[in-house]
Specification:
The complex is a heterodimer. By secondary structure, chain A is mostly beta strands. Chain A is built from no helices and 11 strands. Chain A is globular, with a radius of gyration of 14 Å. The chains are: A mainly beta, B mainly beta.
């Protein structure tokens, strides 16, 4: 049963510290997404990769957030320096990519719950 | 721009009674529409999706949704609620432009009482 995995599942850190969240997409999927979920804003798209290339990161605060895909099996989301307002659940999702422009299904990981004190 | 409106933030039903979760969408183009479910402290799981084929879409766990273009609606239904259906449900829209961007509704929390 193929799944998206995320580590860590929970992270508590202090303001100003660097945070790195990792995601392993489902093998063979060529699209990867990072989302942030908060009570106030709901689910927001932060970044979107296709074939490891970033296609859209307009939802991400550029000054402190960065997203990369060092290889096809690993996506990372970094926050440096972290702030209390970054406290949220961060989800990674991957998709198989569908030819012809149809939106494919995204498969979500279990999330990383980040608390910045 | 596309968007979705989930008309109820909370819906309460008794076990064994029908479920109706309402969703209206706005899209300039032919959209794809999804329902995702999120159980407490879990990720999101796809229930069903509409991609311009049959307007009545059947999903997992007995859920189904009907795409009604004239009403711009995509309501989620289930004939008989189960305790395990208690969760947050998200209606999602996306343009079929190859861009793959999903726009999520604010969610409806389904409460199921014995």
């Amino acid at each position: 049963d193929a799944r998206v995995t995320q580590t860590p599942r929970d992270k508590v850190t202090e303001m100003g510290q660097e945070v790195t969240m990792r995601c392993q997409p489902i093998l063979g999927h060529n699209t990867v997404f990072w989302y942030r979920q908060t009570m106030m804003q709901g689910l927001e798209l932060l970044a979107y990769f296709r074939n490891r290339a970033p296609l859209d990161d307009s939802g991400m605060p550029k000054d402190r957030f960065s997203a990369e895909m060092p290889d096809a099996t690993l996506a990372t989301l970094k926050i440096q320096p972290s702030e209390p307002r970054d406290s949220a659940v961060y989800f990674c999702a991957s998709g198989p990519g569908v030819a012809g422009g149809l939106t494919d299904t995204q498969y979500f990981g279990p999330g990383t719950r980040l608390t910045v004190l | 721009a596309q968007s979705v409106t989930q008309l109820d933030s909370h819906v309460s039903v008794s076990e064994g009674t029908p479920v109706l979760l309402r969703c209206n969408y706005s899209s300039s183009y032919s959209p794809s529409l999804f329902w995702y479910v999120q159980h407490p402290n879990k990720g999101l799981q796809l229930l069903l999706k509409y991609t311009s084929a049959a307007t009545l879409v059947k999903g997992i766990n007995g859920f189904e949704a009907e795409f009604k273009k004239s009403e711009t609606s995509f309501h989620l239904t289930k004939p008989s609620a189960h305790m395990s259906d208690a969760a947050e449900y998200f209606c999602v829209v996306s343009l079929n432009t190859g861009f793959q961007k999903l726009v999520f509704g604010t969610g409806t929390r389904l409460l199921v009482s014995p």
